[in-house]
Write a structure and sequence with these properties.
The chain is about 5% helix and about 45% strand. It has one domain.
């Protein structure tokens, strides 16, 4: 499931209204859900990132905020954003669940 739309990004004491595009997947190496995407160009937020602030929270609608990390600005003024674990958008299933919980186990 992907998300493309408005969100709130909080860095320090400031909250920014942004438009972002996100997608994610369960990483087979660590079994955790990794999500990320791009925040549409926002010169003020780019200035915050260039000052060294990278830790953020993202909130979409009435969902709880989740922690994320901001990346370097791209040539068009957008910012990369990444997170691990529950994403800020709705998922069809529990992303932290072990996908192999229901798999038959070998007898030992």
């Amino acid at each position: 499931m992907n998300y493309d739309g408005p969100a709130l990004v909080r860095v320090g004491e400031r909250t920014y209204r942004v438009t972002l595009r996100l997608a994610g997947h369960t990483e087979p190496v660590d079994g955790r859900y990794h999500w990320g995407g791009r925040i549409a160009p926002d010169p003020e937020l780019v200035g915050v990132v260039q000052s060294g602030q990278r830790v953020t929270t993202v909130q979409i609608g009435e969902r709880s905020p989740v922690e994320a990390r901001l990346g370097e600005p791209d040539p068009w003024g957008g910012l990369r954003i990444v997170g691990v674990g529950q994403p800020p958008y709705e998922q069809p299933q529990d992303v932290d669940a072990d996908p192999y919980d229901d798999a038959p186990r070998e007898a030992t």
